[in-house]
Amino acid sequence: MPVMRPALLNPLFAPVSGLKGVGSKLGKLLTRLLRPAAADGQEARLVDLLYHLPSGLVDRSRRVTIASLPPEGIVTLEVTVGRHRAPPRGRNMPYRVEVFDGTGFMTLIYFKVFGDHVEKLLPEGERRFISGTVSWYDDLPQMAHPDYVVTAEAFAQLPMMEPVYPLMAGVPARLLAKAARAAVERLPELAEWQDAAWLARQQWPGFATALRLLHLPDTAAVLEASSPPRQRLAYDELLATQLALLLVRNRMKREAGRSLRGAGDIRTRLVAALPYHLTGAQTRSLSEILHDMADPSRMIRLLQGDVGAGKTVVALLALAAAVEAGAQGALMVPTEILARQHFASLTPLAAKAGLRLALLTGREKGRARDDTLTALAAGEIDILIGTHALFQEGVAFRDLGLAVIDEQHRFGVHQRLALQQKAGAAVDLLVMTATPIPRTLALTVYGDMDVSKLDEKPPGRQPIATRVLPLSRMDEVVTGLARAMRDGQRVYWVCPLVAESEQVDMAAAEQRFAALTQDFPGMVGLVHGRLRGAEKDAVMARFKAGEITLLVATTVIEVGVDVPEATIMVVENAERFGLAQLHQLRGRVGRGAASSSCLLLYQEPLGETARARLSILRESEDGFRIAEEDLRLRGAGEMLGTQQAGLPVLRLADLSVHGELLAAAHDDAALIMARDPQLATARGQALRVLLYLFEREEGLRFLGAG
User: Fold this and answer.
1) Can you tell me whether residue 480 is helix, strand or coil?
2) Helix crossing, 336-353 with 533-545: angle to 10°?
């Protein structure tokens, strides 16, 4: 049921083009600046302008005379306009205006201007206030294109402290600042939604006051991420995010679940068929999952593990428990390669335990697909493995009890909600991710879930020697690969992320494939995202069988590809990848008995941050430590990628700075839900306004009328 935004917020959600001096042309530019990723095509609103905070401050309060001008910096002076010196016609020279006060003379310089414009701005003999950056030429002071030239009457309106905003081409800085001031003036008085004692202890201003202080700053310190106004707004945004997640979770938990309690006979056969013993972390996580499944309320649990920690086996055992209880299971993965690989690797295990597995991806067509769907509806398939095709129209389970989603951040929160609704009310949900993420980010992406953590590697996993080399040593790398391949080793070569374009990335991969084919004729294969599924499978099968020994690929192989014989991973232009992604790629080797290595090739010169990131990979194989460092060095949005739908967009909070506030917001939201689950109290009503302000009102649909 739709929920209505409170009327007092309507002025803040009005389009920016309605502000004086903006109009439709600038409105379009502001939309590109303020809402670049918006998929709804909606114009930027005043609220977008309010959340676009200044990044710096120009201080014009330094009032000086010409005699006391500093060597550099921004100054403000009161002067008399002297002689104009226009350049000779046709000469590419600046227009100069002499100004003076009682202490000396200086020159104002204008490039490529019309003389009549400058004459109107600076009439000879009149007094003017000027503000801008001073410079010196031959020991004489000058100012090129002053920022302001105003009369004595207008000087009172000159901002002594002028905020500087992040900009893009075509957006005039002064107009943006003026529009932001106009938006601040339209801020309504809002009831306080923060706990009074917490607010007093933090010594934070109110929401509207915090925005005014930031858009009309009087010191540079107020713009720091640690300042009280910034912390106040960051906490508001984090609280709104946590509250929205918990509202959705509460709704899911309230829906009728059921107890899935199996006898354990299938699981016993599965464990006996494994070529290794389960780790302590696997046993502990499985126990937590089985406990949730046996509970009558619905399970919503995250299984988080490092590369190669053995999540898939835990998932299979959980799915087996659902089958033991008389239900069916589904395992959904993000790519067809991974779906087919899971099906191939799990089928022998399942056969020994008496489990019936089937595969469904977008590639299954015609009679084969129809037969699978018929068997599924009849309950003749225990576990269905596939891509998002599992939940398309026409796919009907006889009795789905457990849905497992692998690499959930690829699907996104909204898709997860849609999946839960499509799967049916009583379905338990287990989400898995092989991307270790710090606790702060885990709360943001998975705040509505209980978490199990696989923090041990199964026995037999080999340490991976990681080396960092410049691309200028490419010849040495190719020579080394020739030796390794003669010894029977297999190699991945991952090509760089050239752009946010599969087409361009593919071209880079094809170029490298052509070059390496010359060095190793008949031994090199190529896999990229634009290959048809059957073509990808054929290349992967040849690599797995050892018919080709070097596989050139884009990041299509990042997740889950398992070839134990592969012992070398080469990543070209490694500085362009995120740390978590490099860690994932490195995890494709070290899966067999032989020692493995990872070569990270970088383009010189290497920046300081890139060098620090690559050093961390060389020093550590701990995905959780790597993730913490990635967050610290790059920030949350870039770490998970701007396209990761699983990460709510944070506009005021910076998790690398405000991480502690997120933990507090999570606890606060949990307390609110325990005391006032319908948000019916005075504070609850104010919190509803907060959810609308940060466009997190999705959860209010489940509370009845908003």
Assistant:
1) helix
2) 60
